[in-house]
Amino acid sequence: MIFQGATDQDTDGDARAVNRTGDSGDWIRLREYVPKLVGNLLRSFDVDTQFIILKTQIEDRTMLVDSAFPCGLIINELVSNALKYAFPEGHKGEIAIDLRADDANDPTCILTVTDNGISLPADLEVTNSETLGL
């Protein structure tokens, strides 16, 4: 898919590519949006990129802003949790984000976020949690 659009400024002052299409909605280029989102997270967590490496595999696709932002919230939550819990002080590792279409003609995307940090405790009973999270 060829992207042609205007460049807008987001709240952080970073440029983001948005295709203004009027009634059908605005489109955002995922290959630009996701790395900026995660880059901001790494800076806000003051991550030493010599210890935690980010790997992204993002297809060059666009997505409606109304879908891209919720997808960004999911990525934000998963990466934030990995940064908070998977890599204790001094622990080296990697976070990988893969976002691609299952089929070139299908607008559905598959998002995979993984890390190789420490695992959940062996005695954790996720079915008996008293909270919404783990």
Description:
The protein is α+β, with helices and mostly antiparallel strands and 134 residues long. The chain has a domain at 28-118: Histidine kinase-like ATPase, C-terminal domain (Heat Shock Protein 90). The chain contains 2 helices and 7 strands, in the order E-E-E-H-E-E-H-E-E. A hairpin with a 7-residue loop joins strand 6 (93-101) and strand 7 (109-115).
Short structural description:
The chain is α+β, with helices and mostly antiparallel strands and 134 residues long. The chain has two helices and seven strands; from the N terminus they run βββαββαββ.
CATH architecture of the domain at 28-118: 2-Layer Sandwich
Alpha-beta content class: alpha+beta
Low-confidence stretches: 1-17
Number of helices: 2
Helix content: 25-40%
CATH topology annotation of the domain at 28-118: Heat Shock Protein 90
The geometry reads as globular
Approximately how much beta-strand content do the residues carry?
25-35%
Look at the structure and name the CATH superfamily of the domain at 28-118.
Answer: Histidine kinase-like ATPase, C-terminal domain
Give the topology string: H per helix, E per strand: EEEHEEHEE
CATH top level of the domain at 28-118? Alpha Beta
Across the major sheet, the strand order is 1-2-3-5
Question: Could you give a short account of the major beta sheet?
Answer: 4 strands, antiparallel
The radius of gyration is 17 Å
Average pLDDT, all residues: 80
Q: Quote the distance from N terminus to C terminus.
A: 39 Å
Q: Please report the total strand number as a whole number.
A: 7
